[in-house]
C-alpha cells in the first residue's frame, strides 16, 4: 500500500439521520493535523498531479486515497476507481462476511484512521531505510 | 515451513551485529516455544534468520546482587524459575504465576525473556490470516470469534490480548529489564517494555524491543517490608492454557492498613493492565473482605468489550476480589 494522502468517505460512514457519529469530528481533526486531505469527489486518475495547463499540483492520486465504506458496493466502487477500499466494520458479523470482497483493510472506528495511516507510512519508511 | 538460517553467536555484541545485519528478517531464538510455532504457522512476519542466543555465556542464571535485587538472565528457563529456592523465598507469587504458564514440558524449554516478548496467540494471526501483525491492514479478531484471545479493553488496530503471565506477575514487584542495544544497555520497567500495540520497525508488536536489541536480564528489587502478593488466573483448560483473565496483586501492609498497592490484570487487554484506580482506592484503607468486594466498583470502568468477550471483565473483577480475600486471609 502506498502512503496515504487523502480519504473519501461514503456519507453513511460519517453519520445517520440523528447526526454525525461521535468519532467523526475527533478523527477528522487528527487527520487534518496530519495533513490528510478529505475529499468529496473521487480523485482523478488522469494527469492526477498536473493541472490543465500542465503545472504541478498537490492532488492525491487514487492509489493514495482511502475509500471508507461499510458495504460490498462501496468496496467494488473503490476498487474500480483504483482507490484503496477500506471496510468500516460497524457490525462484526456483516464485516466478517464482507472480508470475502477483499477490502485492502478494515477499521473498527474512524478514530483508527490516524494510526492506520501512520502504520502504512512507518512500514514504508522502515523498508526504504533498509 | 520456510527455510531458515541459524546463527550461533557466543557474545551479546556478536548477536546484535547479526540482528543488525538482517533487520526484521532476523529474530532472537532461545526456547523456541513461540518463534518456532510462528515459523510452523507460516506467518509472513516469522524471521528467516534465527540468532540462537542459547550459547551466549552468562544469560542463564538466578542470583542476588549486593543491593538485594534478584537478577534473572533472559535465557533462564521457566522451570528454573519455578524451582528456584531464592524466588520461592523472596517472591512466592512469581513462582506461583510461573507454574501457571503452559505445561511442565514447555516450561522446560521456554525462557523468561521469550515469555515476556512472545507474540500474541490470536487464532487469526496464528491461522495465517493477513492481519495487522501479518502483513495486512485489518483485525479479524475484532469482527470474528473474540471470546478468548482478544481485548475487552479496546485496541489499537490489533485487538489481540498480550498473553504473557510473567509480565503481569512481575509488575507488582516493580521489576525492570535490561536490553542490550547497539548504543549500550537500556533499562526499562516491565510496563515500559510491554506497553501494548506499538509500531516498531515497520510492524505492530506488543513490546518496544527493536530488531537489533536483546533482552538480557530481569531485575526484581527486594520486596518492601510487609509486602504480600497474590496471583489468580482463569483459563479454559485447567491443565494448561493462556489466561481468560488473570490478576496479580501486591499490597504493602502495616498490620491491616494498606500502605501501597499494585493491581495488574492479564488476559483482558493488549498489555498487562495496571489498574491504578483500584490501587488508589485501596491505598490507606484497612484490608477486609468487605473492602475486597467494594474494590470491584472502581475496577475496569473503561472496559470496551467486543461482541463475545464481555465475560472477561466479569472474570477479572472476580479475580480481583478473590485475590484480595486471599491476602486478607493470609494475615
What is the CA-based Rg of chain B, rounded? 19 Å
Q: Which architecture name of the domain at 227-329 in chain B does CATH use?
A: 2-Layer Sandwich
Tell me the overall shape of chain A.
Answer: globular
Rg for CA atoms of chain A = 15 Å
Tally the helices of chain A: what do you get? Answer: 4
Q: How are strands sequenced across the largest beta sheet of chain A? A: 4-1-5-6-7
Strand content of chain B: 15-25%
List the uncertain runs of chain A.
none
Oligomeric state of the chains present here: heterodimer
**How much helical structure, as a percent, in the residues of chain B?**
25-40%
For CATH, the homologous superfamily of the domain at 227-329 in chain B is named as CO dehydrogenase flavoprotein, C-terminal domain
Secondary-structure element pattern of chain A, one letter each: EEEHEEHEHEH
Biggest interface between protein chains, with counts per chain?
Answer: A-B, 27 and 22 residues
Shape of chain B: globular
Number of domains of chain A: 1
Largest sheet of chain A: 5 strands, parallel
Q: Cα distance, first to last residue of chain B?
A: 53 Å
Which topology of the domain at 227-329 in chain B does CATH recognise?
Enolase-like, domain 1
Q: How do the strands line up in the largest sheet of chain B?
A: 4-5-10-6-7
Note the run of SSEs of chain B as H and E: EHEHEEEHHHHHHHEEHEEEEEEEHHH
State the helix count of chain B.
13
